[in-house]
TrEMBL record:
Family annotation (InterPro entries): FAD-bd (IPR002938), FAD/NAD-bd_sf (IPR036188)
Presence of the UniProt keyword Flavoprotein in the record: yes
Domain FAD-binding residue range list: 293-380
SUPFAM superfamilies, sorted: FAD/NAD(P)-binding domain
Protein name per its UniProtKB record: FAD-dependent oxidoreductase
Keyword field contains Nucleus: no
Key words, A-Z: FAD, Flavoprotein, Monooxygenase, Oxidoreductase
Short name of any one Pfam family annotated for the protein: FAD_binding_3
PANTHER family on file: FAD-BINDING DOMAIN-CONTAINING PROTEIN, MONOOXYGENASE, FAD-BINDING
Top-rank taxon, per record: Bacteria
Organism, scientific name: Nonomuraea indica
Amino acid sequence: MSFHVLIAGGGIGGLTLAQGLRKAGISVAVYERDRAKDDRLQGYRIHISPKGCAALHECLPEELYDRFVATSGKPNTTLGFYDSDFSELLAIGDPDAPEHYIDSFKSVSRISLREVLLSDLEGIVHYGKTFTRYEQRPDGGVRAYFDDGTHADGDLLVGAEGVNSRVRGQLLPGAERVDTGALSLSAKVPLDDETRGLLPRQLFAGSGFVFGPQGKAVFLAAHEFRTRSSVAKAPSGGLLLDDTADYIMWNIVTTWDKLGDRTELEGMDGAALQQVAFRALEGWSPRLHDLIARSDLGSVSVFPLKSSTPVKPWPTTNVTLIGDAIHNMPPTAGVGANTAILDARLLCANLVDHVNGRRTLLDAVHAYEAEMTDYAFKAVALAMRNLRMGVSASPVQRFLTKTMFRFFNAVPPLKRQMSASMMK
């Protein structure tokens, strides 16, 4: 049967879907507002879960999945929790666990992942196309309009343009995206022998959270490359978009009122934000201060943490949404990118069923939307729960959280149970 899918937006979810449809022999076109594939390089790494790896493996041709694995960082097999003096509260997982081709966590550069997802999509990805609106056609199709005056026709339109999705704005005008009142102040630090000695060994096999007083928390992770991307060539502007150098990432998560005036903070340069970080962690471990002092100033940045709110079921049409376009969430559960990849896998599988005559298009899309909104908004709720725990200024809640972690750390059967739950 003749069937063509339009995808507005070439982010992780949209490109994963395009790869899956192409692999299945389904006609697809991606319309991306960027002018070229390297216009939107993002410097930080993404944590891909075993479920995310399985979904990528299903959507990508074998050689591209091989490349994804080869360009990922060293395996993530642990998760640690620490007090502000860097004393261990809980460490789960095995730093010496073997890496599996699919069934293991992987740390991957956003630059490298984007390069993999764009591979072999020449003629499918159309650049310089900013989506403006859509209309349903009398023949049952859908037409997408772009700001350059052009349009494209297809049988299904998928909004994958991220948090400010115009497809969502037209399809679900009541879907809200809210400011959580929290922020992330983050930077990269070059990973060398000196900076390696500042952190516990566990953090070089995974990531860690440091819980401090007054509603502040720090997220830490190291990214050590095994092979290098061919897109970014160690740019002279610093470490932020350097896809050749190993680094440590730190993020201070708190609320704006804990750091100062929001407008002033958002206008600061890297050096000024570094001083804000020092003040925010006053009294914490000197090793954290030493780490912050070694930050690449061009990578120091602050950004608000926003989230979507659950949406009620809506009438299914030949227009749907994936990824941040429907379920934007703060990064405090580490599952945002994974959820977009799962969306792409599920929608692709349902569309294959439609093309093969096993279900109608509306049945395929409806089944996707019902399943997606269930697991995705559970992920949003988890991210928001973790965010509230991290920024809570309640001494009682902080004490109870730390006590719980220490208890699980001291009881091996409970620690194994918690490890199995959190590391899957």
